[in-house]
Amino acid sequence: MSNPFIQIVEPLDPKQPLKKFFNLSKLEDVRYAHLPFSIRVLLEAAIRNCDEFLVKKGDVENILNWKVMQHKNVEVPFKPARVILQDFTGVPAVVDFAAMRDAVKKLGGDPEKINPICPADLVIDHSIQVDFNRQSDSLQKNQDLEFERNKERFEFLKWGSQAFKNLRIIPPGSGIIHQVNLEYLARVVMDQDGYYYPDSVVGTDSHTTMIDGLGVLGWGMYSSVSSLSSVGGIEAEAVMLGQPISMVLPEVVGYKLVGNPQQLVTSTDIVLTVTKHLRQVGVVGKFVEFFGPGVAQLSIADRATIANMCPEYGATAAYFPVDDISIGYLIQTGRDKEKVMCTKRYLEAVGMLRDFKNSSQDPDFTQVVELDLHTVVPCCSGPKRPQDKVAVSDMKKDFETCLGAKQGFKGFQIAPDRHNSIVKFNFEGCDFELAHGSVVIAAITSCTNTSNPSVMLGAGLLAKKAVEAGLTVKPYIKTSLSPGSGVVTYYLRESGVMRYLSQLGFEVVGYGCMTCIGNSGPLPESVVEAITQGDLVAVGVLSGNRNFEGRVHPNTRANYLASPPLVIAYAIAGTIRIDFEKEPLGINASGKKIFLKDIWPTRNEIQAVERQFVIPGMFKEVYEKIETVNKAWNALDAPSDKLYTWNPKSTYIKSPPFFDGLTLALQTPKTIEDAYVLLSFGDSVTTDHISPAGNIARNSPAARYLTSRG
Question: What is the mean pLDDT of the chain?
C-alpha cells in the first residue's frame, strides 16, 4: 500500500527534484509545534514508514497526540535510521546472520540475500586491555596482545565485513564506539534512497545515548537499570532486518539549564550533578530533553558527556535538539560543508532546528526540572555508584566516613582501630607504603570524557604545570591514557602537552574502552599482596561512567569517577584522603609545597589552546583512513566465502540452533510450558556483577573449561 502521507512530500531544493523529504510543517496540525523535539523524530519516522502494515495511521495519530497518549501506556513503532554495535555484543548478531545464510542455503534459497536492511556499523573497542603502561611502546604491546587473544573473533568479524552488505566494521585501534559515532559516523540528517530524514540510532551498548548530545536520537542496551524502551541484541537484530521497535510512547521530562558554569567546573562535574539530580527525580523509561538558555553555554562535547551517562540516571534517551552549535560541530569535525548546509535547511524546514535562547520554541513536557549551572561545583562520584556525587571539598571526609560505615553502597565496615593501618612493600627496589584510600589505579579513559577536548587539554595543561613544579606520580600507581579516537592523541601531541602526560606516567595505552569496562589489566604483584595483607580499601580513580564494586579491578574496593584533570591530581597525591584546599599535592625537590590551585589551568587557557589545535583537518586526516590504518587487521586472513565455515572445536564462535528444523512452510508457534524465572535480583545488581568484562578467575568453572580446551 502507498504511504497515506505522500501529499506532504516535496523537494528540499527545487533544483534537485529527486531529493525529497516529508515536510511535517505541512501537516497543518497545531499539535506538532507543541511536541518535544525528540517526539518529532519519532513522528517523522512513523509518517515516512507508514504502510498500514508495520506502521499504521493510528500509530501516527498516537504520536501526534502525544500530550494525551503519553499517559496511556500505548505502544508505537519506531524504525531507526541506523544500528550501531560494539564487538562484545555485536559478534552474536553477526553469528545469527551467518546462521540465517546457512538456513536459507539448506532450504534451496540464495544465501546472499541475507543482509542487514538497516545500515549497521560495528566498532571493535571492547577487546583491548591495559597489560602494559608507563612505557613508550605500551600502545603497540597492548595491541599485539589484543590480536593474539582475539584472533578468531577478529577473523570472523572481518569475514562478516566482506560477506555482508550494509555492514561496516571499524577495526580495532580506531577508537571507542560512541566517540567514533560522534566524530564520524553520525549524519544528523540522513540522505538515503532519495529522501532526507532525521538521523537516529539504536545500539547494543547502553551508552549509545551519547549521540543524543549532537541531536541524533539514540539509545542502547541497558545494563544498569531497567527501561521500558531498552534495546537488547534481539531488538537490534530485528531493526537490522527492517523491523520497527515496538516501544511505549514515552513521557518526556524537560530539563531546563540556566546560568553559566563557574570557572573551575568541568563537563564531568556537570554530568555527575545531573546524574544525581535525575536519579532523585526518577526518569526510568522516560526521555529527558534539555532546553533553556544554559544549553547554549555548553559545547557539543559537553552535551555529549551529559547524554553519555543517561543510563546512570535511568532515562531511555537524553536529547539535546540540534542548534547552530551542533551545525558548527559538524564543520569543526570535518564533515562535508555542502551536506552540513543541507542538514540545516532540512531541519529549518521541518521545525527541528532549536534556538535555546528563544523560549517561544519551548515545547510541552510531561514535567520540567531545572538546574542552575552556576551552582555546580567540582565533584567526583563514588565509592561504588555513579549517582553518589561527592564535592571535591568533601572527598576526604566522605571517604573516611565510608570506611567505618555499615557495609553497603557508602560503607566498607572497617573497624575503627584499623582506619589508619599501613602496609609497607617494595616495588622495583624501593620501599613504599599503602593505606586505606591509597590510589593504585589512575586512568584517563572512556568516551564519556576523552571525547571532550576541554577536559583532555585541561588534563594536559595541568600535567605540564605539575611537571614544571617538580611533582611526580609514585611508580607503583597504574596510570594510563586510553583516548576515544586518534584525534585526541593528535591534538595532545600538536599542543605540546603529550610529553608532560607521559612524564607523569599517562602514556597512551590503547584506543578502546579499557579501564572503563574493567579491562584495567593486572596490578603489580607486590601492590596486590600489600592490599590483601592489610585488607585495605584501595582506590581506583577514572574518568569513566561506571564504578560498581568489582568492575574496575578486583583489588580496588573504592572507585571514583572524576574529570581527567582530577584523575591526574589524585594520582600525584597518591591518596583520596586529601583536602586539596588545605593540603598540598606534594612537595618538590626544593621543599616547596605545591597546591592544586597552583597548577589548575584557567578556562581561558584551555579555550585558547583548543581554538588553536582542535581543527577540522585533524578529524579529516584521522577518519579518512580509519578502515585501513590498522596493519594487523589488514593482514588478517579472513575467509572470502559467502557462507561461514564453522569450527566445531571453537570455544567462542558456534552456529546457533535457532534455525535447526526450519521449513519453508510456516509452522504453528508452540506453547511455552513450565517456563520459570532464571535469575531474580535486588536493586543495583548489574551485568558487571554477573559477568564482568575483565579477567576470568583462574579457579572458576569457565577457566577450567577453557584450560581443558587448550
Answer: 94
Clarify whether residues 103 and 199 are in a common domain: yes
Amino acid at 96: D
Residues facing 120 on adjacent strands: 83, 167
Q: Give one DSSP letter per residue of 109-158, joined into a string.
A: S-GGG---SS-EEEE--SS---SS-SSTTHHHHHHHHHHHHHHHHHHHHH
Number of structural domains found in the chain: 4
CA distance 298 to 294: 7
Cα(506)–Cα(565) distance, rounded to whole angstroms?
12
Range of the domain at 602: 413-624
Per-residue pLDDT reduced to its tens digit, 628-660: 989 999 999 998 899 999 999 898 899 999 999
- For 352-377, the pLDDT digits (tens) are 999 999 999 999 999 999 999 999 99
Tell which of 57, 78, 99 closes a domain: 78
User: Same domain for 545 and 424?
Assistant: yes
The one-letter code for the residue type at 306 is I
Q: What is the pLDDT of residues 153-183, one digit of tens each?
A: 999 999 999 999 999 999 999 999 999 999 9
| Cα(132)–Cα(69) distance, integer angstroms | 54
Q: Structure pTM?
A: 0.95
Domain boundary, last residue among 568, 603, 624: 624
Tell whether 339 is covered by a domain.
Answer: no
By 3-state DSSP, what share of the chain in percent is helix, strand and coil, each rounded to 5? 40, 15, 45
Among candidate residues 289, 167, 109, the one with its CA nearest the CA of residue 217: 289
Does residue 419 sit in the same domain as residue 368?
Answer: no
312 and 458 in a common domain: no
CATH label of the domain that carries residue 308: 3.40.1060.10
DSSP alpha helix (H) spans, 356-413? 395-404
